[in-house]
Amino acid sequence: MSAPIPDEASMPRQLPAVTFEPGDKLTPPDGNVQCLIALTEGWAARTVAAAPGETRISGLFLKGELCDPLWLAGQAREPVIALTRVRGIAAPLDDVNLLMARKRLMQRKIFADIAQRSLSSAKWIASLGRLSAMQRVAYVLCDLASRLGHRPGRRALRFRVPLNDAHLADIAGVTVGHLRRAVTELRACDLATLARQTIQINDLGRLERVSQFRATQPGAEHRTAPNWPSELMTEL
Question: What is the CATH number of the domain that holds 151?
Answer without folding.
Answer: 1.10.10.10
